[in-house]
User: Fold this.
Amino acid sequence: NSGDSYPIRTLEELGSRARDVLAANDIGTMVTAAPNLYPHMWSWDAAFVATGLSTVSVARALQELDYLVAAQWKSGMIPHIVFSDVPGYFPDVDRWGTRGVAPEGVQSSGICQPPVHATMLRRIVERATAAGGEDARLAEEFTRRTLPHWVDWHAWLRSARGGDGSGLLTIYHGWESGMDNSPRFDGPYSRVQPGDMEPFVRTDTLKVTDHSQRPSDEEYGRYLWLVQQMADVGFDDARLPAVMSFQVRDVFMSAIFAAASEDLAVLAEQFGLPEEAPQLRQWAREFRDGVDATVDEETGLARDRDVLTGEWIGPPTIAGFAPLVSTADQALLDRQLEIFEGPDWTGDPRLAFPLPASTSTTYEGLKPRQYWRGPVWPVMNWYLAHCLRRRGDRKRYHQLCEASLAQLMEGHFGEYYEPFTGEPLGSMDQSWTAAVALEWLA
Ligand code: 2M8
Assistant:
């Protein structure tokens, strides 16, 4: 897509380039997460991509969610990757070993990702309803038809991953959090000891040739070992707690679940499943409280918990702002916003743009070029801003919008950005970056 003039000069041009990126990554059945590095559908990427697409075509946006929902497992789990036939990504479906476990005809991974779907669907429905006509009709038809699937997805999360009374969801792989190598997981991963497994060759480092932007080989060994542990028990939810050597109560995913359960309750009331709403609202309350209870009095940030050691997880990462997504406690919200805008986060004067990095910029473990260890992620900026706007905070939405658009004008739709220089890193033409550019412009 790239065109030949960088940086982009006008917002119109930014929008048209973003649409080009999504069109170029559209292989018909799905919009792949990125053209080269990620030639498949990722669960939470697809939700963000759908909302971006809905600014162009509601029909195409719903098709994206439809394709994802068609891959739902019998248990209710929505898998984190739905594979296309494009080769070149590792681990592929064979390495996952999900054939025979995943539904007939579906090629998928065997883990999940953060449940942003209901929140994004609500956004699409609101946009389509405002537009009226055919868009409104399609959104209503889609929502009525797929609601039971989204409810099953939330019920699976609550029962298979969140039934221990903590009000937090447990993940069995860092990939489930979506923030793969965040320092949040260094402690839990340090206790994962890979045993005998098939050798493997990474493909990500063939594509992102500056390897310092990706996780290390040692980290990948642990990632693959966890896949092996799950495959050995046939991805049986009931057996995972006894075998997995990585188990973390993920605070950010839990906040997303709380917010999305509320959004799903609203959709259920509007589109023919009102009897599900009380249960969904109950889950929203339970997980909102679970998230609030993790906040460290001293730092004001929310924390994950290592299930296997019972320890709180300390590093100051963007996940610490989980209450911005879900809390109903005004004092907590105010404190979090003060930290968010303070010198350790968006108020750090060294930043290229006042946007939240994936770890605090004053954290000693900050790696400003490495994936989830420091770079700024455009998709996170928009998601957090969206959550603030939902609370009625238009001022902060507009501040984040202005900073994000300024960042994106460099024109590459990077997967992530160096916080101090604004250099695009990881994959270029990343779909969810283009999608949130369209949301900012909408
Ligand atoms: C990254 O994760 C995948 C594994 O799931 C990878 O590195 O191969 C993460 O940033 C994740 O959050 C994202 O959904 C995925 C696709 O963009 O890439």
Remarks:
- The CA atoms of residues 269 and 275 lie 8 Å apart.
